[in-house]
Amino acid sequence: QVQLVESGGGLVQAGGSLRLSCTASASSASANVFGWYRQAPGNEREVVALTRTSRFTTYADSVKGRFTVSRDNAKNSVYLQMNSLKAEDTAVYYCYAEYSSALSRNTFWGQGTQVTVSS
Asked: How far apart, in whole angstroms, are the C-alpha atoms of residue 98 and residue 35?
């Protein structure tokens, strides 16, 4: 079992910035996918930004150019720098890690951290 611990959420005004951090209890170098999802009230959980061992990154169209995801395997951590925040970015942000092989696929979630953007 891999534990993911997030930090960095909070309340910020529109146009402001926040940086989320997530640290895994296992080596993140082995994580095929390591990144962030979010879920706003009444909405389904959605991808925000993901990093892969191939160094390929994925961003939701709504955050491209504003958010940057980065991974530091030496610290078993992934970060989400969020700039130019909008009210519609308000959500609970979840850290996500996927460890997979030819035989198995294991996914893990953090407990979530609230991000609230006031307009």
From this structure: 9
Between the alpha carbon of residue 89 and those of residues 26, 28, 57, 67, the distances in Å are 29, 26, 20, 11
Separation between Cα atoms, residue 40 and residue 47, nearest integer Å: 12
Mean pLDDT, the chain cut into blocks of 10 residues (119 residues total): 95 98 93 97 97 90 97 96 98 97 94 96
Contacts of 97 (CB under 8 A, 6+ apart): 2, 4, 24, 28, 31, 33, 34, 107, 108
What count of Cα atoms within 13 Å lies in the side-chain half-sphere of residue 27? 3
Segment (H or E) for 65: none
Residue 42, pLDDT score: 94
Can you tell me which residue has the tokens 């309340």? 11
